[in-house]
Specification:
The protein is mainly β. The chain has one domain (about 25-220). About 0% of the residues lie in helices and about 50% in strands. Strand 9 (about 110-115) and strand 10 form a beta hairpin. It is globular, with a radius of gyration of 17 Å. It starts with a strand and ends with a strand.
């Protein structure tokens, strides 16, 4: 289990980390998980389709969201701990599905957004070296997400410079809310969504890929 860590506050994700500074102790990790997959996987790297939501079905540790899309039926699977809310995922609701498939040789990067017909966010997720897709798509609207650096060292030893990180979230110009690696929170002005930061780390490119960072983050509307 990974350790969640305290942060110094918002940082430029590209700024160097002072490795000489004494690291803060890491807080105990929470039981946090967020994963997703889309079936069938889009053949195109960038994909968008109009859909209608079917009835969400509980699966082991998550949800199966059937989608009747113009291009054919699809299912968006979401696994989360704590469990994802389902109130906003009503059967018969018109939606639009946007996905950016794997963008590296290992198939290890991807982004997805499921939004209501009016553009309101239902589900968004990233598993990549960045929080933003390479095409500049606004994945997290109406929220803004940005990486923050942690002052504490990872408990892992395979990558000597790997450090825990987190995500700073803002909504409607309000005060920033920081959620750390292996953390989750109800977010928004009225707690209208749930955010998981299942993984957030930065360090050597040899450990974390060309971006020198890795994020596994999910956001699901709560109403």
């Amino acid at each position: 289990m990974l350790g969640g860590c305290g942060v110094e506050g918002p940082h430029d994700a590209t700024a160097p980390v002072d490795t000489a500074a004494a690291p803060e102790p890491c807080a105990a990790a929470q039981e946090v998980r967020f994963e997703w997959t889309l079936d069938p996987v889009p053949e195109d790297i960038s994909f968008a389709d109009a859909c209608v939501l079917g009835e969400p079905a509980a699966i082991d540790g998550g949800l199966a969201l059937p989608l009747a899309c113009e291009g054919g039926p699809r299912t968006l699977y979401v696994w989360g701990a704590p469990a994802p809310p389902v109130e906003a995922l009503r059967a018969g609701r018109a939606a639009r599905l946007l996905a950016i498939a794997a963008t590296d040789a290992d198939g290890g990067q991807g982004f997805v957004r499921l939004e209501a017909a009016d553009g309101g966010l239902l589900v968004a997720a990233a598993a990549a070296g960045s929080l933003a897709p390479p095409d500049g798509a606004r994945l997290w609207l109406p929220f803004d997400l940005a990486p923050v650096a942690s002052a504490c060292l990872s408990e892992e030893t395979a990558c000597g410079s790997r450090r825990r990180a987190g995500v700073e979230l803002r909504r409607s110009g309000g005060a920033p809310q920081v959620v750390l690696d292996a953390g989750w929170a109800a977010v928004g002005d009225l707690g209208e969504a749930q955010l998981w930061v299942a993984a957030a780390a930065r360090g050597d490119a040899a450990c974390l890929g060309e971006a020198g960072a890795y994020y596994a983050v999910g956001l699901v509307a709560a109403r």
